[in-house]
Structure formats: C-alpha cells, structure tokens
Amino acid sequence: MNAPTSPHRTRVRHGGIVLAAAASALTLTACGSLGNVVGSGGSASPKGDDIVVGLLLPDKDTARFEKFDHPIIEKEVATLTHDKGKVVYANAEADPATQSRQFQQMVAEKVDVILVDALDAKAIAPDVQKAKDAGIPVIAYDRLAQGPIDAYVSHDNELVGQVQARAIVQALGPKASSSKVVMMNGDPADPNTARFKEGALGEFQNQVDIVAQYDTDKWSPAIARANMKKAIRSVGLSNIAAVYSANDGMAGAVIEELKAAGATRIPPVTGQDANLDAVQRIVSGEQYMTVYKSFLDEATDAAQMAVDKVKGKDIQFDALTRDTVDSPTTKKIPARLVPVVALTRDNIKQTVIADGVYTVADICTPAYAADCAAIGLK
C-alpha cells in the first residue's frame, strides 16, 4: 500500500457523518534511510530553504505513522523547500525513554524545528524546554505535549470520542439505554486519551450502561485483548451489547477475543485511524466504524507550519493556526484542528478511496471480494 501520491491537501469529502472540528529506535533516519541526524546549525533567525525538520513519532503499532505521516511530511517539506530541506526521523517504538533520547539528540544536532508526537505528554516537557533554551521551535503533532511548545496540529479530540460514542448509540437504537457497553480507552499517558474519553462519556451519559472501563498502556493491542477477556468473564459474552474501542489496533484485538470466546455475532465495535485492516473489518461487518482523521491534511499542515516557522513566514503561520488550545503548562497555544469523519460501510468510497489513502484493490483483496461486492465497492 502506497502513501497518497500528492503532498498537497485534499479536503475530506462529505461522504458520511462529517463533523467539523470546533471553530477556533535510538538511531534517527534522514530522508527515510538509517543514519545519523544531519546537523543544520539551527538558528533563531529566519532561514532559507536549507532547513532540517526533526520528526519524532511514537510507535509502529499504529499503521498510519510509518505508512502515511512520515512520508507525507517528508515529501511536503521537500516540496516547500525546493528539495533543499530535509526531514530527520525517529520512531520511539512505544518507549518514552527512547523518545526522550531521540529528542535530546535532535536538540544536540541543532535541527531547525521539531515536530513531536509525544508518547508521554508530561514526561516530554523537560526536553521541550531544552529545545526552547536552544532556540529550536517545537510543534506538538497529533498529541498535545506539555512544556513551552510553539504550536499544535491535531484534531478536535473530544469530538473524536463523541463521534465514536454517537455511532454506538445509533447502532443500538431503542435498546441503547438498557445495553451494556465496555469501554477500551487508550494510554493514560497520552493526553488525547482523556479527551477521547471525555467526549465519549459525555455522549454516553444517560444513554447506555457502561459496565466496564479499561485504560490501555501504550495503546497495546495485546493489553486490550487481555482486558477484553476480563470483561467477557465479568459481564458475560452474551450481555455485551457494544465495545467502545478508542483506536483500530485495539478494535482488532477486541474482535479477536470476542471471536475466541465464541461470539457468533460481533457487537458494534468502534475504532480510530482508518487502518487498512480496520477498513476491511468494516467491509466484512466485523467492525462497526472507525474515525477517519485525514492524516493527509494533518501531515501537510504540520509540514507547512514547521517550514513557515523556521523561515519566519509569520502571516502564513498565523493563517494556519487560527485556533488556540491550553495545556497544563502553556496557555493559548496556536493550533490547527483538522476535521474528522465517521467512516462506515456506507462512505468508504467517499472518504479513504476518494482521498487516495487506499485503492479498491488495497481493500478488496480476495478474502474481502464478496463483502466488497455486496456494498458496491469495486
């Protein structure tokens, strides 16, 4: 599966439930190959095209980071700098200590700007301060890091939880109020987790019976599956009417455990990220929905913000960051919030296919050919 061919923004089509956001590995890889960080002699003064963008992503279990975010940002930076700019990349592989070392190495090598998707928002704050002291701007990517960050690009994460919970309530229909729902939340160290949960709980209030909740360290599918086994033993397989899963990796594990326990019909299970295997599960009816967050928009916006910040293009930077958000340490952080879409069987064509994320061939492999034909996906 290839990343989208164009680095330029393609806005999400209105193919389903489209909800706009509220107004408002210690070795680093350079240009995709293993090697040392390329030093840039970073400076607080505006630069030309020969800039170095440091990119720190959190894990490889979430398919989008390696398949989309990294290559899209790399390509967009190259386009915006006439192929003179570089991206140095590191993936922490779900280890906060590794991410801290990677961050510190980028500061030591004097990259011009750092985009960081923090595994642990609080733990990364001292590293953000070190970058600030070195005159290196830091943009929080996808997750809101603590410390003196310069900007934030993500989605309205409370809205993500609302979309997921609303989908479950709609799927349960008139029986919702008496239905038992299990919540499989994300990593408590991830600041987005609290926002997803807050949005979901607000939507669920007085509408469903939440019988079990679990936090999932490092978003681990293995931990999610173990917790689902506990939920089945505690609640009873036949009593579980739906499972709120905060992302697709956990959704897959939840579904596998339900099947292992003998479920002949999978109850509605939510997800997030529109991973390919999740889209295929939606086609087959095993997973009810996922939240499609256009990482094409998010990644291209992040690259643009990083380049504009380093090159001193304040007007363009301000135009991209018209919203503001607060972290526990910093108030009124300039922010870019990208819309989200509830992806179901009904709008696959109008979302991930129309946006070039996947092709029909990617989704409709032989194992899913009949299910694709049944929903007119060909």
Structure characterization notes:
The protein is α/β, with parallel strands linked by helices. Helix content is 39%, strand content 17%. The chain has 13 helices and 15 strands. It has helices spanning 63-80, 96-108, 125-133, 157-172, 191-204, 221-235, 248-260, 276-284, 295-311, 314-320, 349-353, 360-363, 369-374; strands at 17-19, 29-30, 33-34, 52-57, 86-91, 113-116, 138-141, 151-155, 180-184, 209-214, 240-245, 290-293, 323-325, 333-338, 340-343. The strands form 3 sheets. It has a 9-stranded mixed β-sheet, with helices on both faces. Strand 4 (52-57), helix 1 and strand 5 (86-91) form a beta-alpha-beta unit. Helix 1 packs across helix 9 and helix 2 packs parallel to helix 3 (125-133). It is globular. Residues 1-43 have low confidence and may be disordered.
Looking at this protein, list some descriptive labels.
378 residues; alpha/beta; nine-stranded mixed beta sheet; three-stranded antiparallel beta sheet; 13 helices; 15 strands; 39% helix; 17% strand; globular; disordered N terminus
List the helices and strands and how they pair.
Elements: E1 17-19, E2 29-30, E3 33-34, E4 52-57, H1 63-80, E5 86-91, H2 96-108, E6 113-116, H3 125-133, E7 138-141, E8 151-155, H4 157-172, E9 180-184, H5 191-204, E10 209-214, H6 221-235, E11 240-245, H7 248-260, H8 276-284, E12 290-293, H9 295-311, H10 314-320, E13 323-325, E14 333-338, E15 340-343, H11 349-353, H12 360-363, H13 369-374
Parallel strand pairs: 4-5, 4-6, 6-7, 7-8, 8-14, 9-10, 9-11
Antiparallel strand pairs: 1-15, 2-3, 2-5, 12-15, 13-14
Helix pairs in contact: 1-9, 2-3, 4-5, 6-7, 9-10
